[in-house]
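step 4 of 6: structure.
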Amino acid sequence: MAFYTAVLETTLLFSIFVLSVYMLSGLTGLFSLGHGAFITIGAYTVGLGTTRFGLPIWFCVILSVVVGLFAGLVIGLPTLKLRRDYFLLVTFMFGEMVRALLLWTAQLTGGAMGLAGIPYAAELPVIGVSTIVILVFVANLKKTAFGRTCIAIRDDELAAQAMGVNVYWHKVKVFLLSAAIASYGGGLLALNMTFIEPNLFNWLESAKLIVIIFVGGINSVTGSLFTAILYYSFGEVFRFAHVWRDVILGVLVILVIVFRSQGLFGAWELSLTWISSLFRKIRPAKSGG
Amino acid sequence: MGSSVFYQQVISGISLGGVYAVMAVGFGIVFNVLRFSNFSHGGVVAISAYVGLFISWNIFPSFWMAFTATALLGGVIGLLVERLVFRPIRVAGKPLTYFFVNSITVAMVAQQSLSALWGHEYFPYPTFFERAAMLVGGVFVVSQTYLLMLGISALTLLGLTVFLRITKLGIAIRAASSDIYTPPLMGVNTDLITGVTFVIAGMLAAVTGFFLGMTYSVTPFLGALMIKGIIAAIIGGMGSLGGGVIAGILLGVGESLLIAEVGSSVTPIIIYLGIVILLLIRPQGIAGKLTTVKA
């Protein structure tokens, strides 16, 4: 039972990461290959705050979000003005830089040896509630005017700009929100795993977060979440197939993009009206209806 | 740092920079034609490093034969990637996003398959030459591998330049680089052009993979060294191949001098910070060719 709880915890934590990447890529079409860096930053802020400085846990979690936001500003402000590829490449470098920074400051962070002894404070209820809150937030953001504007930017930046949308600020806002969620998730990850190391999230992990979204469908939060849960719970249960599962995921991604590029779920969303419509069908249909 | 040590660092920096330059050009040539960041280049680099390793241990013990065979096979791998992964979505006219997603997927599949198969070991390349180092001008001791890397990188880039300037295919590739939509109207076969571009990129990736394998040992993570090529491409200005070459060499020299001066752990941090600052001041890179989103 404890094992399945642990699997559920990890799966939900990674779902938070996927949701944060979904917000960035699904809404604005920006890709961050350094999103793992925000997760690492959040994790290390919490880890260092609790073990080295003895700060209260709730304060560390808030601090991790603040530090993540600050890092997002530093990276986002100069690069979001440029062509999307620059953003992508700079975030890729940012991820490597954070790793190099952690290895360099080994005296404080423990370097390659990692950081152990973080209190175990993020249990299933905390993670579960966080996931649900973030899920509701992201799913609803998509429907707001802000979210729709972002989707317009994703589909045609030039057209959105011509309609008077401030593309740059929309991108900055979404990026910062996404970075904040990732850092928060990273903080929870540290409090859940109690041991962190610089290689926790390399570029490959960040790439996986993006790729998972495309399997489920860039237009569907449900699809992204479904794929994330499937992939990460599968990985935890079948640890022996750890490396091969990435190969399987990769082949699946290419097949999906070539043959069904809108993703497995397309634009379909699981919603309360859909669920209630299911029950309505079970009832005998009225004549002539 | 004494002046002789300094020059030695510069020379080894230039030769490593030559490899970065080849990487930047391989990355840039695909970017120029298809306008997406081709991360699969790193995957092809890693795969060809293993291919080169296998060939030089088992088939051709001579450096030249092994090198040529690897470069040719790299071209084949590049073509395979294009035909299997990129061509279907190109024909269907999918947005650039999907090209990018497919390219990171290829890099991921390459790295993870290699680590699943041979990930637990580090493989060295055979020693091709008896004399490891030679004296240049009676003063500097230079590793022969480095000189060879420098010479071959220069020749490769020169050959590519000649190809792009003189041959009909090369001119077509340059035409497609400035505008992919018009050449087909002039009777240029875009399918062929894209294929040839990926063959060239694959060959350049194989050259990189072979040299990186000789410099370091072969691991599945060799593809992640592509970040050096990407940095060079950014400094050079994305879309400018010449800028990428200069930037690659500058990066190599800067890196080896920094490593000698302040140590290998701070060097990457300084370089990455430098890139962010460069983008703030001069986003078009040193070559001054800014690629923008057009309607």
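step 5 of 6: annotate
 - Strands of chain A lie at 115-116, 195-196.
 - Chain A touches chain B through 48 residues (CB under 8 Å).
step 6 of 6: archive
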